[in-house]
Specification:
The chain has 297 residues and is an alpha/beta fold. It contains 11 helices and 14 strands. The chain has 3 domains: 88 residues, Winged helix-like DNA-binding domain superfamily/Winged helix DNA-binding domain (Arc Repressor Mutant, subunit A, Orthogonal Bundle); 99 residues, Periplasmic binding protein-like II (D-Maltodextrin-Binding Protein, domain 2), CATH 3.40.190.10; 93 residues, D-Maltodextrin-Binding Protein, domain 2 (3-Layer(aba) Sandwich), CATH 3.40.190. It has a 5-stranded mixed β-sheet. A 5-stranded mixed β-sheet has the order 11-8-12-7-13. It is rod-shaped and about 105 Å long. The two termini are 52 Å apart.
């Protein structure tokens, strides 16, 4: 197919220029290559397309008919490539995104009207899910994930960082007392975020020190918002992402247990298939979310 297009391009340019020399210059190839391409096209079609003389090159009757069609074909290809180029640079079209429920509802959902107003040609298809979706198999353009990314088919752009903080309600602490050491967490009912291989094994760090505590779950859930609600209601101590409990901490409805201790930092990433060209709509959404999460850094 590539040879056929090269032959057609050479023929059309020679017809336009009326010269093999000028056509070769326009195509940035040597004259002999242009001549061979036209000769190959004529041989394949079994008809002479050009009349050649020492002074000029002219189209035959068959050449005039074929020239019109070939020129139209090349113009269509140019138009198609230009349209694709415009689309690649335009923030438009359907954007299918997967986001984790906690981060999505607390920080992304309130910001969506601003994004949609800024990009009126985008249709956003947003899926809240705590599971790790397969972007390639399930047809997602982008996913926001908390934690590491191991899939070599994907590119991860770090947007922000997050930690989990041990927290409880003031009423719970007044009734049951606050733990003084990390080991004391084992004696308190725990509200456990059910993610990872060992969700009931809490890892906490402070000033270079690391502690591991196996807690006793009173409630387990994969939904951080459900656990935050239970924690606010005085059901126990929870280790929750900072982005989920940011507001109740600021309002004093939750307080930090063992101040200074927290889980190791995790990255919040924008994940997309590892293609060479990233659509403008994907880049625009990732840039927007990065700006919204800047306070978490």
């Amino acid at each position: 197919m590539a040879d056929r297009l090269n032959q057609i391009s050479a023929f059309v340019e020679v017809a336009r220029q009326g010269s093999f020399v000028r056509a070769a210059a326009r195509l940035s190839v040597n004259v002999s290559a242009t001549s061979r391409a036209v000769a190959a096209l004529e041989a394949r079609l079994g008809v002479r397309l050009l009349q050649r003389s020492t002074r000029r090159v002219a189209l035959t009757e068959a050449g005039r008919s074929h020239f019109r069609r070939c020129e139209a074909l090349l113009n269509e290809i140019d138009d198609a490539e230009a349209a694709v180029g415009r689309a690649a640079g335009a923030v438009e079209g359907r954007l299918r995104v997967s986001v984790p429920t906690g981060l999505g509802l607390t920080h992304l959902a309130p910001a969506l009207p601003e994004f949609l107003a800024a990009h009126p040609a985008v249709t956003l298809d947003l899926h809240y899910a705590n599971r790790i979706v397969d972007l390639v198999e399930e047809g997602f353009d982008l996913a926001i994930r908390v934690g590491g990314v191991l899939d070599p088919r994907l590119v991860a752009r770090r947007l922000a960082t997050s930690r989990r903080l041990p927290v409880a309600s003031p009423a719970w602490l007044a009734a049951h007392g606050a733990p003084r050491r990390t080991a004391d967490l084992a004696r308190h009912p725990a509200l456990v975020l059910d993610v990872g291989a060992e969700p009931e094994r809490w890892t906490l760090v402070r000033a270079g020190r690391e502690r591991h505590v196996r807690v006793t779950p009173r409630l387990r859930s994969g939904n951080a918002l459900a656990l935050a609600a239970a924690c606010l209601g005085g059901s126990g101590i929870a280790l929750l992402p900072d982005f989920v409990i940011e507001a109740p901490l600021a309002q004093g409805r939750l307080v930090r247990v063992l101040p200074g201790w927290a889980s190791p930092e995790q990255g919040i990433h924008a994940i997309y298939p590892a293609n060479r060209f990233i659509p403008a709509k994907v880049r625009a959404f990732a840039d927007f979310i990065a700006a919204r999460l800047a306070t978490l850094r």
